[in-house]
Specification:
It contains no helices and 13 strands. It is mainly beta and 179 residues long.
Length: 179
């Protein structure tokens, strides 16, 4: 927070930052919220959020330049997870780009645990906080049911609007304009 952020760059080897160890056994759902901004990332290059379950890391969300974000724009992102969590759980961000000019800046990381499965499992939200030379407005969006089984419903008040939904692996599930 404040003046500083985490800066990750790659020089051919993956660059990462790792959280402290957390006892997450009392939670059934976890939301990881953070801000990020990229600089110099070529289209197709990515960074990931991973969860350590006590024995191995698993990628829970992937973010790909050109598909989910653009350079020099600040994004507010939330990744929702549900299930059983470890007593020695960790999170890490990894920059998987290929050279020293591929920067990812990460800031304002908030990890919240929930004792019910009240989050939309496997959903990743990305909101633009600031964009150079463009204007973005925040709109009211209601998403239900929560949790979702097979079909996600939504209501949006301000149209037209573009709604993109990604799974936690970064795969685009839906991309549509609502009028």
């Amino acid at each position: 927070e404040g003046t500083y952020s985490i800066r990750m760059r790659s020089n051919g080897a993956e660059s990462a930052t790792t959280s402290p160890v957390y006892n997450l056994t009392t939670f059934q759902a976890i939301a990881v919220e953070f801000r990020f901004k990229a600089s110099g990332m070529e289209n197709g290059k990515s960074f990931v959020l991973q969860y350590f379950n006590g024995s191995a890391y698993t990628t829970v969300a992937a973010f790909t330049a050109g598909a989910e974000f653009a350079n020099n724009i600040t994004y507010l992102t939330t990744v929702n997870l549900s299930g059983s969590f470890a007593s020695n759980g960790r999170f890490r961000f990894m920059n998987q780009a290929t050279d020293n000019t591929d920067y990812i800046f990460i800031d304002a990381i908030v990890i919240t645990g929930f004792t019910g499965s009240s989050l939309l499992e496997g959903v990743k939200f990305i909101d633009v906080l600031h964009a150079d030379h463009e204007t973005f407005e925040e709109v009211d969006l209601i998403v239900y049911p929560n949790p979702v089984d097979n079909e996600l419903q939504y209501n949006i008040t301000d149209v037209p609007a573009r709604i993109k939904i990604y799974d936690t692996k970064g795969k685009l599930i839906s991309d549509r304009w609502v009028y």
